[in-house]
Design a protein that fits this description.
The chain is an all-beta fold and about 110 residues long. It has strands at about 5, 10, 20-25, 30-35, 45-50, 55, 65-70, 75-80, 90-95, 100-105, 105-110.
Length: about 110
């Protein structure tokens, strides 16, 4: 099993920035961030595979940046120009080389004045 430890969720003002971190307990093929607001479906924020190929959700392109420290099994999500619509629980996801997937417990991000 792969354990994911998330951190960085907080209350921030519109236009502010926030950095989320996810540390995996083992080397994995791919990692990513997803988010889910109350009453809405879980959606892709950003993801990256072991080759460095990335994929961003349309609503965050140009505002969020994804980086991976492979040696540390750590994924960072830099969120800039945050909007109230970004308010959600953010979940870290990891896919091992042998298949399957794992999820973190989530970290709350609230964007409000």
């Amino acid at each position: 099993q792969v354990q994911l430890v998330e951190s960085g969720g907080a209350l921030v003002q519109p236009g502010g920035s926030l950095r989320l971190s996810c540390v995996a307990s083992a080397t994995v093929l791919a990692m990513g961030w997803y988010r889910q607001a109350p009453g809405k479906e879980r959606e892709l924020v950003a993801r990256i595979d072991n080759r460095g190929d990335t994929d961003f959700g349309d609503s965050v392109k140009g505002r969020f940046t994804l980086s991976r420290e492979t040696a540390e099994n750590t994924l960072y999500l830099e969120m800039n120009n945050l909007k109230p619509e970004d308010t959600a629980v953010y979940y870290c996801n990891a896919r091992p080389f042998i298949g399957g997937e794992y999820w973190g417990q989530g970290t709350q991000v609230t964007v409000s004045s």
